[in-house]
Amino acid sequence: MFLKEAESGLPLGVKHPLPRTPLAFERQVDWALKFDPHEVCMVEKPNYPSAREHEEHLRQHLEEEVREGLVAKMSRGEFEAKFGEERAVAALAVLVEDEITGKKRVIHDGSHGVRVNHRIRCLGGREKRMLVGKFERAKDVQ
After folding, report:
1. Per-residue b/e over 17-52, b at no fewer than 16 CB within 10 Å?
2. What ranges do the domains of the chain cover?
3. Backbone angles phi, psi at 97, to 5 degrees
4. Which long-range contacts (CB under 8 A, 24 or more apart) does 69-72 make?
5. Stretch 4-30: mean pLDDT
6. CA 5 to chain centroid
7. At CB < 8 A and 24+ separation, what contacts does 3-7 make?
8. Contacts of residue 109, Cβ cutoff 8 Å, sequence gap at least 6
């Protein structure tokens, strides 16, 4: 059932935990990022200066993610209407990994300020990564 649902997309996020697979893996009870529901989270964190410094690379990267279906492109009004008070805009940064080749990596910072990463709880995440990996490898073979 999980793999069938994965074909069209999984409802990931702070409000939609993935179902567990208890026959495959034990329940995860300890989280590296602790979430305190009383701690104030920002709704939006501005991008890091490197995003402006490498704006063209960042735009190309995001357009590619839109083409791949990994990111949805919408106006701020559409975004606010769709997600309302439950929205969060994480900061972006661009890291230059290799000065010689110019290789760059885009970082989505879901931890600092908005604390999105702290709120995500995929119940049984390790087994989901394993199953998704097998599913992706099976698609590549076909």
Report:
1. ebebeeeeeeeeeeeeeeeeeeeeeeeebebbebbe
2. 2-141
3. -80, -30
4. none
5. 70
6. 18
7. 3/131, 3/135, 6/131, 6/132, 6/135
8. 45, 48, 90, 91, 92, 93
Residue 51 in tokens: 């995003």
pLDDT of amino acid 52: 94
Prediction pTM value: 0.55
Based on DSSP, count helices (H) and strands (E) in the chain, helices before strands.
Answer: 6, 2
pLDDT in tens, 87-129: 888 889 999 988 889 899 998 887 777 777 666 666 555 656 6
The whole-angstrom separation of Cα 4 and Cα 6 is 5
Q: What is the mean pLDDT of the chain?
A: 78
